[in-house]
Each structure stands twice: as C-alpha cells, then as structure tokens.
Amino acid sequence: MPHPQPSSSVVYLIGNARKPGAAETFHRLSDWLQTKGVLGGADLDGRPELINDAKPDFIIALGGDGTILSVGQAMAHRQVPIIGVNLGKLGYLADFSVEELEHYLDRILSDPSLVSMRMMLDVRVIDPAGEAWSGIALNDCVIRVGQPFRTISLAVHFNNQPVTTIVGDGLIIATPTGSTAHNMSCGGPIVEPDISAILMTPKCPHSLSHRPVVVGSDAQVSVTIDKTSEGAAVVLDGQSVHTVTGGTEICLSKSKEMFQLVRHPHRESWDTLTMKLKWGQNLT
Fold this sequence. Notes:
By secondary structure, this protein is an alpha+beta fold. The chain folds into two domains: about 10-110, Probable inorganic polyphosphate/atp-NAD kinase, domain 1 (Rossmann fold), CATH 3.40.50.10330; about 120-255, Probable inorganic polyphosphate/atp-NAD kinase, domain 2 (Tumour Suppressor Smad4, Sandwich). The protein has helices at about 20-35, 50-55, 65-75, 100-110, 180-185, 270-275, and strands at about 10-15, 40-45, 60-65, 80-85, 115-125, 130-135, 140-145, 150-160, 160-170, 170-175, 195-205, 215, 220-225, 235, 240-245, 250-260. The strands form three sheets. Strands 6-5-16-13-8-9 form a six-stranded antiparallel β-sheet, with no helix packed on it. It has a six-stranded antiparallel β-sheet with strand order 12-11-10-7-14-15, with no helix packed on it. The radius of gyration is 20 Å and the shape is globular.
C-alpha cells in the first residue's frame, strides 16, 4: 500500500475550555498539528465565529457533541467537514478519541469517503408583527413551553395543507442526525443519519392519537402557535433560544447545505448506537 502523501489541507482546532483536561489536550494537539504543517488557526475558548477568517478545509472540534453543534450553527451555510474529538460523557457525534485522531488524521485528510453528508433544516420564524429571523438546525428545532409551564397549542401544516393541532408541552422537528438526541428521549424514532427525512415528535401531547411521524425531506412544514403562555421558545440544536408568542409561525424545509461529519474509519453508525446508547441490549 502506498504511503499517504503530505496533506495540503488547512485544519482549524476549536476547544471547549470548560471540559476537564481540555487545555492540556488542546495545546498537545495544537503543537502536533503545527508540526504537521496543517494548522490554520486555533481557539481554546470555543468561539466558532472566528473560524471563517481561517477558511479551513476541516475543523477539529475538541469537547463533545455540544461543541460540534455550536460549530455547525456558526458555520451555517458554509459547512466544512467536522472531526469530533470527545472529551465529554457520551460523545455520540464526537467519534474520535485524541489517540484515534492522531492515528487516523492523515487518512481523514485524504479520504473523502469518510465524510458523512447529513441533511439539515432551514428554519424561519415569523412573529405576529411580520418580523422574521432565520436559522439552521443540524439536530432539531424544538418548540417548547416555558414558565409558567402551561400547555402550548400548535397548528401543523404539511405543504400548506392543515394536518392537525397538537396541545401539549411542545413539538420536536428533527433531522435524522438528531433522531438520537431529544427526539429519542421523547419516544421518537431512531433513523439512520445519512437518510433524508423530517421527524416530528410531540412532547407530552394531551391526546393518545398524536404519535411521532416521519415525512419526506421535500415536505414544507409549518407550525403556527395558536396559544401559549409566557416563556415559550423555539430552540435550535440546544444552542439558539428565541422566545415566541401566540401567532408566531415557524417554517421548516430541507436546507441546500449539508452538515459534514467525519466518521470513524472502523465504526459504523449502528456500532455507535449499540456501544454508546446501549440500543437493543438487555440491561438486566
């Protein structure tokens, strides 16, 4: 087998200083990447807004899934492959240990087949006055109640067709990547991350008939808040929180941009599901 050629890729290293041991690991990796001649920038304080100036080909997110999501949120429609290095408790998206990163980096930088291309959602929120803001969801868009924690009433439309009204604690609209996050904890389906689909899981609905559904990725989904209490919010990936009022409309559709996550060369998505989430295992 021929030896890998030296890479001309530019790598940006971003850390999460709040994680135990992050500073020591960050400096170790930063020095190593400089020695390899691929480091285009580094920031231990987790400020993803600085990444764009470096124009990297790859981003190493050192921390955990929250670090990866914050990077993906900041990159918005300028996605590049993200290599997740886990310093957290679970690290479902963060597929590599530090030692594995050091072992596989040359292959990662030269093998595009290791990049998993994943669907994201464009989200547009329009308040009753017509003011709008837009965002992107790698994992999910969650419409949730807030203090004083009364129910929220949500009118759901698919492709401009009225479908149902959900009364309960809210609604999770997730990507396949986000199927193993908040969606799963609320009883939603687990979907392979490379599939294109939109998942909708009601949160504690006040009805036995409102079950999770999966629709095609070409669907245009809109949710209008009919009635809610103070404190209700739209939350994107657990990172971006915006309070909302009655009359607000949330419009969601498949993004033209793809979330790009580098996968472990010797680990499939189902391996991670069984290894880290203990799916299908008898725990008794």
